[in-house]
């Protein structure tokens, strides 16, 4: 079963990076101002970081296949200003997303993709889509998709479950 990426792939130099830098900073400050209070603070920070890592880690180990297509239809409203699905779908600001799950990036006919997308070499399998939808510009720097990304794992899983329903003709096949 496909799973969401591990936290370090997921965040790269993002939020977690900053948290651990903070702790490292605390440690080096300790060399000049060594006191019991500092030591306590350091261990509290360390504990806090461990707690955050645990929470983030377990959230991201969530199964993509836990997605709910009906809930995903609601999430997809946030994509609809730019993307269409269904038998009559036409390219707009973004390309048609019929049968996008499993499709090569930059492959929908008659859509003018950015070079970044077209040359990315990516295939939109579920894991790649999940990474992309979290932070599009992080996975495909230079993409012209200006959407900032979805912050919740469940929303990502749900919208993927929704998109998976549509075949190349835009008909709903399967659950
Ligand atoms: C503000 C407009 C906008 C919104 C909102 C938006 N996108 Fe996009 N999307 C684009 C554009 C533009 C591209 C083309 C990117 C490129 O060529 O660099 C794109 C590309 C994509 C691709 C790659 C398609 C391909 O054929 O390579 C996927 C997948 C995608 N978007 C999914 C979504 C999903 C799912 C949502 C909602 C959660 C969403 N987008 C929201 C504008 C948008």
TrEMBL record:
GO terms for molecular function: electron transfer activity; heme binding; metal ion binding. This is Cytochrome c2 (Modular protein). Keywords: Electron transport, Heme, Iron, Metal-binding, Transport. Residues 67-167 form the Cytochrome c domain. PROSITE patterns: CYTC. The keyword RNA-binding does not apply. It comes from the Bacteria.
